[in-house]
Write a structure and sequence with these properties.
This is SatD family protein. The protein is α+β, with helices and mostly antiparallel strands. The chain has one domain. It contains eight helices and five strands; from the N terminus they run βαββαβαβααααα. α1 runs antiparallel to α2, α5 crosses α7 and α6 packs across α7. The longest helix is centred in the last third of the chain and has 31 residues.
Protein backbone atom coordinates (compact mmCIF):
# COMPACT_ATOMS: atom_id res chain seq x y z
CA UNK A 1 0.00 0.00 0.00
CA UNK A 2 1.04 3.59 -0.59
CA UNK A 3 0.21 6.48 1.72
CA UNK A 4 0.91 10.10 0.80
CA UNK A 5 1.10 12.70 3.55
CA UNK A 6 1.49 16.35 2.54
CA UNK A 7 2.07 19.29 4.85
CA UNK A 8 1.64 22.84 3.56
CA UNK A 9 4.78 24.99 3.62
CA UNK A 10 4.43 28.26 5.51
CA UNK A 11 0.73 27.76 6.17
CA UNK A 12 0.69 30.30 8.98
CA UNK A 13 1.81 33.01 6.58
CA UNK A 14 -0.38 32.15 3.60
CA UNK A 15 -3.85 30.98 2.67
CA UNK A 16 -5.03 27.44 3.32
CA UNK A 17 -4.56 25.46 0.10
CA UNK A 18 -5.81 22.12 1.43
CA UNK A 19 -9.10 21.96 -0.48
CA UNK A 20 -7.32 22.92 -3.71
CA UNK A 21 -4.76 20.14 -3.29
CA UNK A 22 -7.46 17.60 -2.44
CA UNK A 23 -9.20 18.41 -5.72
CA UNK A 24 -5.96 18.02 -7.67
CA UNK A 25 -5.20 14.68 -6.01
CA UNK A 26 -8.67 13.39 -6.81
CA UNK A 27 -8.14 14.38 -10.45
CA UNK A 28 -4.66 12.81 -10.54
CA UNK A 29 -5.61 9.37 -9.16
CA UNK A 30 -9.34 9.07 -9.76
CA UNK A 31 -10.83 5.70 -8.82
CA UNK A 32 -7.44 4.30 -7.80
CA UNK A 33 -7.77 6.09 -4.47
CA UNK A 34 -8.90 3.64 -1.81
CA UNK A 35 -10.43 6.46 0.22
CA UNK A 36 -11.03 10.12 -0.63
CA UNK A 37 -8.05 12.38 0.20
CA UNK A 38 -8.63 14.00 3.54
CA UNK A 39 -7.45 16.96 5.58
CA UNK A 40 -6.30 15.28 8.76
CA UNK A 41 -4.75 17.81 11.15
CA UNK A 42 -4.48 21.52 10.46
CA UNK A 43 -3.12 21.91 6.95
CA UNK A 44 -2.07 18.28 6.46
CA UNK A 45 -3.47 16.09 3.67
CA UNK A 46 -3.42 12.28 3.42
CA UNK A 47 -4.26 9.93 0.57
CA UNK A 48 -4.03 6.15 0.13
CA UNK A 49 -3.79 3.91 -2.93
CA UNK A 50 -2.69 0.40 -3.80
CA UNK A 51 -1.40 1.48 -7.22
CA UNK A 52 2.25 2.43 -7.74
CA UNK A 53 1.32 4.47 -10.82
CA UNK A 54 -1.26 6.42 -8.83
CA UNK A 55 1.09 6.85 -5.87
CA UNK A 56 3.64 8.45 -8.17
CA UNK A 57 0.99 10.62 -9.85
CA UNK A 58 -0.20 11.81 -6.43
CA UNK A 59 3.35 12.55 -5.32
CA UNK A 60 4.19 14.50 -8.45
CA UNK A 61 0.97 16.49 -8.26
CA UNK A 62 1.52 17.38 -4.61
CA UNK A 63 5.13 18.46 -5.21
CA UNK A 64 4.42 20.36 -8.42
CA UNK A 65 4.23 23.91 -7.07
CA UNK A 66 6.64 23.62 -4.14
CA UNK A 67 3.96 24.61 -1.63
CA UNK A 68 3.89 21.23 0.12
CA UNK A 69 6.33 18.94 1.91
CA UNK A 70 5.38 15.47 0.72
CA UNK A 71 6.07 12.10 2.29
CA UNK A 72 5.41 8.79 0.53
CA UNK A 73 5.09 5.75 2.80
CA UNK A 74 5.04 2.14 1.61
CA UNK A 75 3.92 -0.82 3.71
CA UNK A 76 0.99 -2.54 5.34
CA UNK A 77 -2.29 -0.86 6.25
CA UNK A 78 -4.63 -2.18 8.88
CA UNK A 79 -7.67 -3.78 7.27
CA UNK A 80 -10.53 -3.39 6.80
CA UNK A 81 -10.19 0.24 5.90
CA UNK A 82 -12.31 2.69 7.87
CA UNK A 83 -14.65 5.19 6.23
CA UNK A 84 -12.04 8.00 6.22
CA UNK A 85 -8.32 8.06 5.61
CA UNK A 86 -7.69 10.03 8.82
CA UNK A 87 -8.98 7.01 10.78
CA UNK A 88 -6.71 4.49 9.02
CA UNK A 89 -3.48 3.16 10.49
CA UNK A 90 -0.60 0.76 9.93
CA UNK A 91 3.10 0.75 9.03
CA UNK A 92 2.51 2.62 5.74
CA UNK A 93 0.99 5.53 7.67
CA UNK A 94 3.88 5.58 10.13
CA UNK A 95 6.30 5.49 7.19
CA UNK A 96 4.48 8.40 5.52
CA UNK A 97 4.70 10.39 8.76
CA UNK A 98 8.45 9.77 8.97
CA UNK A 99 8.76 10.67 5.28
CA UNK A 100 6.93 14.00 5.50
CA UNK A 101 9.05 15.00 8.50
CA UNK A 102 12.17 14.20 6.45
CA UNK A 103 10.75 16.02 3.43
CA UNK A 104 10.64 19.29 5.35
CA UNK A 105 14.46 19.25 5.41
CA UNK A 106 15.07 17.68 2.00
CA UNK A 107 15.76 19.10 -1.46
CA UNK A 108 12.56 19.12 -3.44
CA UNK A 109 10.57 18.69 -0.21
CA UNK A 110 10.02 15.01 -1.00
CA UNK A 111 10.94 11.88 0.94
CA UNK A 112 10.14 8.18 0.74
CA UNK A 113 10.10 5.69 3.60
CA UNK A 114 9.33 1.99 3.84
CA UNK A 115 7.31 0.56 6.68
CA UNK A 116 9.65 -2.44 6.86
CA UNK A 117 13.28 -2.30 7.99
CA UNK A 118 14.21 -5.05 5.52
CA UNK A 119 13.39 -2.79 2.55
CA UNK A 120 14.68 0.50 4.00
CA UNK A 121 17.90 0.50 1.96
CA UNK A 122 16.03 -0.17 -1.28
CA UNK A 123 13.62 2.65 -0.41
CA UNK A 124 16.58 5.06 -0.13
CA UNK A 125 17.64 4.18 -3.68
CA UNK A 126 14.15 4.75 -5.08
CA UNK A 127 13.86 7.98 -3.09
CA UNK A 128 17.01 9.34 -4.77
CA UNK A 129 15.53 8.80 -8.23
CA UNK A 130 12.15 10.18 -7.21
CA UNK A 131 13.83 13.32 -5.84
CA UNK A 132 15.71 13.84 -9.10
CA UNK A 133 12.43 13.71 -11.02
CA UNK A 134 10.78 16.19 -8.64
CA UNK A 135 13.76 18.56 -8.89
CA UNK A 136 13.66 18.33 -12.70
CA UNK A 137 10.01 19.41 -12.61
CA UNK A 138 10.80 22.25 -10.20
CA UNK A 139 13.17 23.74 -12.79
CA UNK A 140 10.36 23.96 -15.33
CA UNK A 141 9.16 27.50 -16.03
CA UNK A 142 5.51 28.51 -16.15
CA UNK A 143 5.64 28.81 -19.99
CA UNK A 144 7.13 25.32 -19.97
CA UNK A 145 4.28 23.98 -17.87
CA UNK A 146 1.77 25.60 -20.22
CA UNK A 147 3.02 23.69 -23.24
CA UNK A 148 3.59 20.45 -21.33
CA UNK A 149 0.07 20.45 -19.88
CA UNK A 150 -1.45 21.09 -23.30
CA UNK A 151 0.72 18.43 -24.94
CA UNK A 152 -0.26 15.89 -22.28
CA UNK A 153 -3.89 16.74 -22.91
CA UNK A 154 -3.36 15.54 -26.48
CA UNK A 155 -3.11 18.89 -28.22
CA UNK A 156 -0.93 18.91 -31.39
CA UNK A 157 1.96 21.36 -31.36
CA UNK A 158 0.38 23.51 -34.09
CA UNK A 159 -2.79 23.84 -32.02
CA UNK A 160 -0.75 24.67 -28.91
CA UNK A 161 1.00 27.40 -30.89
CA UNK A 162 -2.35 28.88 -31.91
CA UNK A 163 -3.74 28.72 -28.36
CA UNK A 164 -0.68 30.43 -26.88
CA UNK A 165 -0.16 32.81 -29.81
CA UNK A 166 3.40 31.65 -30.39
CA UNK A 167 5.13 29.88 -33.28
CA UNK A 168 5.28 26.07 -33.58
CA UNK A 169 9.06 26.41 -33.30
CA UNK A 170 8.61 28.19 -29.96
CA UNK A 171 6.36 25.36 -28.76
CA UNK A 172 9.00 22.81 -29.72
CA UNK A 173 11.70 24.83 -27.98
CA UNK A 174 9.65 25.13 -24.78
CA UNK A 175 8.92 21.40 -24.74
CA UNK A 176 12.59 20.62 -25.19
CA UNK A 177 13.61 23.03 -22.41
CA UNK A 178 10.93 21.53 -20.14
CA UNK A 179 12.53 18.05 -20.53
CA UNK A 180 9.10 16.55 -20.80
CA UNK A 181 10.26 13.51 -22.76
CA UNK A 182 12.86 12.78 -20.09
CA UNK A 183 10.10 12.98 -17.48
CA UNK A 184 7.83 10.70 -19.51
CA UNK A 185 10.63 8.14 -19.73
CA UNK A 186 11.39 8.33 -16.01
CA UNK A 187 7.81 8.06 -14.73
CA UNK A 188 7.10 4.41 -15.70
CA UNK A 189 10.58 3.37 -14.55
CA UNK A 190 10.12 4.91 -11.10
CA UNK A 191 6.56 3.56 -10.85
CA UNK A 192 7.93 0.06 -11.55
CA UNK A 193 10.50 0.49 -8.77
CA UNK A 194 7.75 1.62 -6.38
CA UNK A 195 5.69 -1.45 -7.31
CA UNK A 196 8.69 -3.71 -6.70
CA UNK A 197 9.28 -2.06 -3.33
CA UNK A 198 5.64 -2.56 -2.38
CA UNK A 199 5.80 -6.21 -3.41
CA UNK A 200 8.95 -6.69 -1.35
CA UNK A 201 7.21 -5.16 1.64
CA UNK A 202 4.33 -7.62 1.23
CA UNK A 203 6.77 -10.54 1.05
CA UNK A 204 8.53 -9.29 4.17
CA UNK A 205 5.23 -9.12 6.04
CA UNK A 206 4.21 -12.61 4.91
CA UNK A 207 7.57 -14.05 5.94
CA UNK A 208 7.34 -12.37 9.33
CA UNK A 209 3.79 -13.65 9.94
CA UNK A 210 4.75 -17.22 9.03
CA UNK A 211 7.59 -17.42 11.55
Amino acid sequence: MFVITADQVGSRRGRDQASELIGRLEAAAGDRLLLPPDQTAGDEIQAITDSADSALALTLEATRDGHWSVGLGIGDVRMPLPDAVRKASGPAFIAARDAVDAAKRAEGRIALRSGHAATAARAEHVEALLRLLVLLRHRRTQPGWEVVDLARAGRPQKEIATLLDITPAAVSARLKAALWRAEDAAVPAIAALLADLDAASVETSEDASST
